Amino acid sequence: MQTNLLDIDLADWFDPDADKLREECGVFGISGNSEAAVITALGLHALQHRGQEGCGIATYDGKLFHTERHLGLVGDHFTQADLPQRLPGSFAIGHTRYATQGGTILRNVQPLFADLSSGGFAVAHNGNLTNARALREHLVQSGAIFQSTSDSEVFLQLIARSKAPKVVSRLIDALGQVEGAYAIVCLTKEKLIGARDPLGIRPLVLGDLKGNPVLASETCALDMIGAEYVRDVEAGEIVVYANGKLESHFPFGRRKARPCAFEYVYFARPDSLMDGKSVYEMRKRMGERLALDTLADADVIVPVPDSGVPAALGFAQKSGIPYELGIIRNHYVGRTFIEPTQLTRSLGVKRKHAANRSVLAGKRVVLVDDSIVRGTTSKKIVQLVRDAGATEVHFRSACPQILWPDFYGIDMPDRDQLMAANMTIEEMTKELGVDSLGFLSVEGLYWALGEESRNSAAPQFADHYFTGEYPTRLIDQDNSQSDKFHQLSFLVEA
What we know:
Helix 2 packs across helix 7 (219-225) and helix 9 packs across helix 10. The protein folds into two domains: 21-258, Aminohydrolase, N-terminal nucleophile (Ntn) domain (Glutamine Phosphoribosylpyrophosphate, subunit 1, domain 1); 282-467, Rossmann fold (3-Layer(aba) Sandwich). It has helices at residues 10-14, 36-46, 83-86, 132-141, 153-161, 167-175, 219-225, 261-267, 279-294, 309-319, 342-347, 357-360, 376-387, 419-422, 425-432, 442-448, 464-467, 475-493; strands spanning 25-31, 54-60, 65-71, 91-97, 112-116, 119-129, 180-187, 192-196, 205-209, 212-216, 228-232, 238-242, 245-249, 273-274, 277-278, 300-303, 327-329, 353-355, 364-369, 392-397, 436-439. The chain is an alpha+beta fold and 494 residues long. Strands 3-2-4-1-10-9-11 form a seven-stranded antiparallel sheet, covered by helices on one side. The protein is built from 18 helices and 21 strands. The longest helix has 19 residues, at 475-493. The chain is 31% helix and 23% strand.
């Protein structure tokens, strides 16, 4: 009998990380280096984990701008020996993309470029604007013509329409009109510019490569090219490199930063520094606190690879329970590995994870993962471990329960698809098929991140996924809800 494809969760079967959260983008920029395109490609390769759907590089050679944008991975497009000829120049910016706004089509891949009255301008954006739809509608009504469906093009449109005399002033004018999260790098014929939103929700760091300034989403990109980490771009800061000098601007004043908590929990590479702190060490601390608060009587601690590894190490070290690799991940499962059939569907998670029976059989197992989103993959992992002969399975999440969606650049399901938002602990325990279930508390997360406790009056991180306290206005979301209310009212009246 032929399988009905409509009955198959295609996202789950074509994507080996279907139940994982995804960051929107990674950005990179360098000024004053004759191999700018090659260095940018290397930097983007280090940031590939932040977006796998598209990649692009824009360069300036002193006379002309050059751009290349592609669907797919950096290594598939920017490794050829002729890259310096294709993208000449000593100034470059680059981008890796995962779409949260706009579809996966080439015209949405960044950097975006436009010829403005002041000259060429390229921009690469990581984050999400919470008033992009409202701004876009206003701009279209006033005559603007958009070439993409990405919210990042709003930056170009606002800069183009600014009456300010200089390009940095135009950028400031544009940033003053947007809401939400952004870390952007921009390239003009004279300047390399970086900017971070007033709360510093999305990350951006400064580096130095033999006197050449570098901007990147994470320090792992600096390590890749042999650059030194200088510091993080501060919340609300605009940095401008021109004529060998660095300028720093805080056009909107200084506010207490609220960086995204999920950067520490999951998105950033473990070898990166965030605000000068080791991501790897903070994730180990999450596991340590998890062991203190939710210890289980067990024989072995097993990470759910790869993102659960640091927390599982911390859990094992604090609890004294042996750490073992009870699950082996297949890193070579592609999106189109095999056409979905009833057979492949029944094999489930085994395409991408295999049980190490010698570690699991006859053992009481604690599984440690970074988070639980929908719960679909977690459930399959638990069954995999039970099928390998585990006598008990206890599941621990190294972050708090995810109760609310994100609107700042994380591809997070609607609230009705978030497991913890719709089930009690007891119901989740039963649904996952585990003997016990535990989550890191919000206070425990803050402890792991180096804070004594969460300041409820002024939270130190953007933690709305756990608390429902959003750090900015959600203009597009509020307007959408208002539209739905008015549509419902019309139907009721009719």
